[in-house]
């Protein structure tokens, strides 16, 4: 995933969100199917690696495409609609594994449905924001007219052209606009202090959140019951988190909810070692509460991070943040080994990290009700100017 996210983020920003989604999904399906025919361990590991290189960006590409298509008021509900099948799919894997029993058969059942993504070029429109940001105005106009027909909305012929002209209307002199168009991500990072602050803060958030999320997953053995049941239970615990985010993100705001989710995770996990029986019913309940909080934080991070960065580099910067999260995912399986120093060490570590992340939420602005920034220089504007 460290290899995948920067590559697919570049593809998404260069050739479009839809292209990244189709390449990622169908490529992973093809490699996963090939993996089921591997004749050696080396071939299996190679197929597993290439499958993840392609497939790791399915969710980020779909998420960015979704939020760029929708208005502010629909983003959180759509995030729920995207998250429910994700959690349901994860829980279904436990059932599929139980029924098939053998990994080759499992792969041959699980991967072929991804080939349905080959229909997306005909079924799924490209992001209008991406088209406009890349000066593909005729295609953007065509997509908007198509959306209007599907929604049975009558638009005057010149309304779309006027709207697109407004979106691309220069707010500074021509030379400055051209410089912004050609500005590389590295130059923008050096030039804009606001970009640096947001990006470095998000790096810490993602590393911590993903470490805790997967650290809880690998500690599922601490729960009573069968491995398949525990896996399904942990996946099901994501559903209340998604529902709470849907209800609260647009009411409380991105920053307050992220702070509350991180604190909930921290308090639940730090409390586990204080119980007389940390592996009993109450320990399991706190474990699941921590899982709910970690899922809320990670889901809120997808929304919040995507809204903090401009359209010109949104997918790449979201991929960069998620790549930092992969460092946390790589270290997460090592947390059970820390129990050698005391059974209290792993849950305490998993609780302290979100506590530290919660302290960083004051470094970035609230994005609730704000228009998505399109260019790097938009990050320097007063918040009211892009409301």
Automatic annotation (TrEMBL):
The chain crosses the membrane at residues 20-38, 44-65, 77-99, 105-124, 199-217, 229-249, 256-275, 281-305, 317-338. Keywords: Membrane, Transmembrane, Transmembrane helix. InterPro entries: MFS, MFS_dom, MFS_trans_sf, Sugar_transporter_CS. The keyword Transmembrane applies. Residues 1-368 form the Major facilitator superfamily (MFS) profile domain. GO terms for cellular component: membrane. It holds the Pfam family MFS_1. GO terms for molecular function: transmembrane transporter activity. Its main location: membrane. It is found in: Membrane. It is a multi-pass membrane protein. PANTHER family: SOLUTE CARRIER FAMILY 22 MEMBER. This is Solute carrier family 22 member 16. It comes from Papilio xuthus.
């Amino acid at each position: 995933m460290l290899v995948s996210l920067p590559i697919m983020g570049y593809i998404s920003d260069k050739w479009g969100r839809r292209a990244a989604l189709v390449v990622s999904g169908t490529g992973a399906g093809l490699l996963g199917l090939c993996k089921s025919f591997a004749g050696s361990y080396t071939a299996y590991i190679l197929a597993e690696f290439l499958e993840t290189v392609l497939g790791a960006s399915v969710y980020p590409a779909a998420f960015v495409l979704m939020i760029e298509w929708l208005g502010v008021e629909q983003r959180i509900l759509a995030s729920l609609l995207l998250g429910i099948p994700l959690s349901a799919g994860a829980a279904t894997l436990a059932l599929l594994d139980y029924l098939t029993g053998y990994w080759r058969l499992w792969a041959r059942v699980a991967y072929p449905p991804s080939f349905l993504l080959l229909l997306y070029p005909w079924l799924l429109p490209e992001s209008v924001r991406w088209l406009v940001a890349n000066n593909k105005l005729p295609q953007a106009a065509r997509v908007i007219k198509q959306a209007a027909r599907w929604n049975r909305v009558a638009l005057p012929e010149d309304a779309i052209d006027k709207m697109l002209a407004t979106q691309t209307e220069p707010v500074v002199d021509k030379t400055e606009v051209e410089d912004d168009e050609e500005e590389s991500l590295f130059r923008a990072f050096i030039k804009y202090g606001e970009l640096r602050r947001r990006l470095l803060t998000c790096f810490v958030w993602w590393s911590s959140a993903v470490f805790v999320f997967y650290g809880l997953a690998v500690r599922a053995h601490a729960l009573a019951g069968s491995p398949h049941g525990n896996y399904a239970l942990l996946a099901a615990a994501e559903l209340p988190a998604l529902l709470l985010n849907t209800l609260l993100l647009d009411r409380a705001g991105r920053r307050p909810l992220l702070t509350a989710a991180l604190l909930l995770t921290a308090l639940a996990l730090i409390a586990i070692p204080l119980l007389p029986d940390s592996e009993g019913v109450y320990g399991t309940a706190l474990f699941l509460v921590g899982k709910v909080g970690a899922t809320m934080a990670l889901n809120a991070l997808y929304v919040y991070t995507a809204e903090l960065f401009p359209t010109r580099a949104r997918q790449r910067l979201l991929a960069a943040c998620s790549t930092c999260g992969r460092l946390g995912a790589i270290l997460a399986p090592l947390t059970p080994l820390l129990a050698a120093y005391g059974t209290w060490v792993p849950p305490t570590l998993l609780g302290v990290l979100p506590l530290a992340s919660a302290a960083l939420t004051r470094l970035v602005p609230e994005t609730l009700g704000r228009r998505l920034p399109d260019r790097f220089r938009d990050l320097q504007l007063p918040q009211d100017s892009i409301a």
